[in-house]
């Protein structure tokens, strides 16, 4: 009550002062369509009574409203009047408040202006108060546009993680022009706007750099306000974002896998929004496979399961799981798995590359290479001929080394099917068989070269001649020999017999051919030796045949050589004929001289190169009267022939010694 009195006094003083100078003006804001109160103090200072309150609006001579209590005891009985051309029924003077006020309903823009109230007291002087009523027109609801396209922002639009937000907030109208403010959740982020008088638009352009995951579903609000009297106009945008995947992981990385087994490989990715697209790659090539199943799982994770059957070729390659948000460039994450594919050995056997498998003869050397691919490494490599395991045996010319087999000094029995076999922890594998065929001249089957067959005169005997050779004999004929007379048996008298079958396939390399002769002795002269001859033109390289027709001639004149160190030496010239060279050229000849008496040490060892003269040796320094034995050899790359022996040679004077025709 005390405070109330004090205010009253103060107001009174104030009014008196101003009524002398100028009536103060109170600014009042009202919002269009809303209600506004224009205050007017009607209290008297000294319990005086009001007779009348009159309202004026600047620009009109007549009052626009009157409150008349003359002759009434109570305010509630006051006579009220409102000018219909001004506020009409929208105005009502309220005395119950302090201060009293003129209430105007449904404010119109034409209501704006300077108002005056005049309070007439019964005794006290009249009081005047002035008010400046401003009618505020709130702005329309803001509109949000995409900063780049200027299109109205749609609900479905999304920002990529890391991109810049570029938005325009626009608001039309408003009196006075509104303030436009951008909020991110509850924080002001942009208060800069401009007003375009012509278009009546207020615009705030928001550029917010590099939004991150933390901004997902943040609320961006554009607020337009030009008064505190009514709530601001706002537009809300919930920031929808595309997020990059954060994690990608192959969950089932086995340290090793076996070829041709099925594996379900799982890969999980999280962090992407919308869910990551998972793809699989092998050695940087995409796996396009219906055996991939993708599942969205809890917490916005993606799971992909690849049903994968590794092959041998996959060993050492990388299997990659890639998670990507296709909306965000360069958002892919990868996890790689290096495949250790284990498999049974893959074995391939071949004959040495430098060899011609169609031209292998007895005495040759061959080698095989066993080519093995395996993971893990093979712990065993074995070799087989016709199913029988081969062992290292250098005396038999069988040498097994790392991944090769060497066969030295082939015989026709070396022919057969060769295989190698490799084993590792995944299993063992036998190679393809490689057949070794060895060419050799025909030989009588099973070594039976001579058979005695008895026959009566006029009896027909069936003579069968079987030979083995590779390749098969080209020519074949029969001869008949009766004490020195060798005659051809006419072709008409014999026939081919098919080979006695070789069902046991391992011997397929040995070609048997049989020939049958039906022979009927007619006279005594028809008994003798029947021989069969086969030839296949295989030249087996071997040592040369022995020299033959050797002869030694004593020389009267000493030679200019003193090999035996004897002073009065006598010389010999030894000449021979060459036999078959064994299929390889003869490169030298050798002579060994030993004493005939004691058969002792070699007295002279002499080698001469082969030349146009044929085998010719000159020997000096032999002791006259002593006997010697001369051993003569031909030598080619395969070795030394059997010796031709010239004995005994006794130097007496000029003489000539010869060997037999053939040794
Ligand atoms: C009334 O207020 C308006 C702004 O609301 C102003 O422009 C005008 O000058 C004021 N009039 C007076 C007389 O103070
Ligand atoms: C997953 O995505 C949905 C909407 O797609 C979201 O409401 C939720 O928070 C996300 N969860 C996680 C863990 O990110
Ligand atoms: C080696 O080969 C020779 C000749 O074929 C044979 O006699 C010998 O038994 C073999 N040695 C072994 C250890 O097999
Ligand atoms: C076979 O013998 C050779 C030497 O003669 C040797 O180098 C090789 O390792 C042996 N192979 C096997 C399997 O014993
Ligand atoms: C002919 O037969 C005789 C006696 O069986 C034998 O000594 C001789 O070497 C044979 N001659 C030929 C060329 O086969
Ligand atoms: C004879 O000489 C040759 C080479 O000229 C040699 O290889 C051979 O071993 C010698 N023979 C003997 C028994 O000394
Ligand atoms: C070899 O010697 C024999 C006698 O032993 C003879 O008949 C033959 O003609 C000789 N050969 C040559 C080519 O001189």
From TrEMBL:
<dbReference type="Pfam" id="PF07679">
    <property type="entry name" value="I-set"/>
</dbReference>
<feature type="domain" description="Ig-like">
    <location>
        <begin position="245"/>
        <end position="340"/>
    </location>
</feature>
<dbReference type="Pfam" id="PF13927">
    <property type="entry name" value="Ig_3"/>
</dbReference>
<feature type="domain" description="Fibronectin type-III">
    <location>
        <begin position="557"/>
        <end position="654"/>
    </location>
</feature>
<protein>
    <submittedName>
        <fullName>Hemicentin-2</fullName>
    </submittedName>
</protein>
<dbReference type="InterPro" id="IPR013106">
    <property type="entry name" value="Ig_V-set"/>
</dbReference>
<dbReference type="Pfam" id="PF07686">
    <property type="entry name" value="V-set"/>
</dbReference>
<dbReference type="GO" id="GO:0009653">
    <property type="term" value="P:anatomical structure morphogenesis"/>
</dbReference>
<dbReference type="InterPro" id="IPR013162">
    <property type="entry name" value="CD80_C2-set"/>
</dbReference>
<feature type="domain" description="Ig-like">
    <location>
        <begin position="24"/>
        <end position="134"/>
    </location>
</feature>
<dbReference type="GO" id="GO:0030154">
    <property type="term" value="P:cell differentiation"/>
</dbReference>
<feature type="domain" description="Ig-like">
    <location>
        <begin position="345"/>
        <end position="435"/>
    </location>
</feature>
<dbReference type="InterPro" id="IPR036116">
    <property type="entry name" value="FN3_sf"/>
</dbReference>
<feature type="domain" description="Ig-like">
    <location>
        <begin position="142"/>
        <end position="238"/>
    </location>
</feature>
<dbReference type="GO" id="GO:0016020">
    <property type="term" value="C:membrane"/>
</dbReference>
<dbReference type="InterPro" id="IPR013098">
    <property type="entry name" value="Ig_I-set"/>
</dbReference>
<dbReference type="InterPro" id="IPR036179">
    <property type="entry name" value="Ig-like_dom_sf"/>
</dbReference>
<keyword id="KW-1133">Transmembrane helix</keyword>
<keyword id="KW-1015">Disulfide bond</keyword>
<keyword id="KW-0472">Membrane</keyword>
<feature type="domain" description="Ig-like">
    <location>
        <begin position="459"/>
        <end position="536"/>
    </location>
</feature>
<keyword id="KW-0812">Transmembrane</keyword>
<dbReference type="Pfam" id="PF08205">
    <property type="entry name" value="C2-set_2"/>
</dbReference>
<dbReference type="InterPro" id="IPR007110">
    <property type="entry name" value="Ig-like_dom"/>
</dbReference>
<dbReference type="InterPro" id="IPR003598">
    <property type="entry name" value="Ig_sub2"/>
</dbReference>
<dbReference type="InterPro" id="IPR003961">
    <property type="entry name" value="FN3_dom"/>
</dbReference>
<dbReference type="InterPro" id="IPR003599">
    <property type="entry name" value="Ig_sub"/>
</dbReference>
<dbReference type="InterPro" id="IPR013783">
    <property type="entry name" value="Ig-like_fold"/>
</dbReference>
<keyword id="KW-0677">Repeat</keyword>
